[in-house]
Write a structure and sequence with these properties.
Layout (H helix, E strand, L loop, with lengths): L10 H14 L3 H17 L5 H9 L24
Helix pairs in contact: 1-2
């Protein structure tokens, strides 16, 4: 198993971590393991398309109706083969 040291951790963050760990009945080290495991497992399961991501952001606001763009008839192809 690998180990790591986290330097320059804000005192307020450390305090919140201590309280969260106590609330879950774990050591701070176990709590950090669970946080990392949870965060990394969620990130790998979130593979969605760009369209789905945009739709998920807009949907809570009721969506957006865009007017249809006017379309012109297709222009004739230049007669290069003549």
């Amino acid at each position: 198993m690998a180990s790591m040291t986290i330097r320059n951790l804000d005192d307020q963050i450390k305090q919140r971590l201590r309280v969260r760990a106590a609330h879950h009945g774990r050591s701070m080290e176990d709590e950090v393991r669970e946080i990392l495991k949870s965060a990394l497992s969620e990130a790998s399961g979130r593979e969605t398309s760009l369209v789905a991501s945009i739709r998920a952001r807009i949907e809570p606001y009721g969506g957006i109706d865009l007017p249809a763009a006017p379309r012109d008839p297709i222009r004739p192809v230049n007669g290069f083969d003549e």
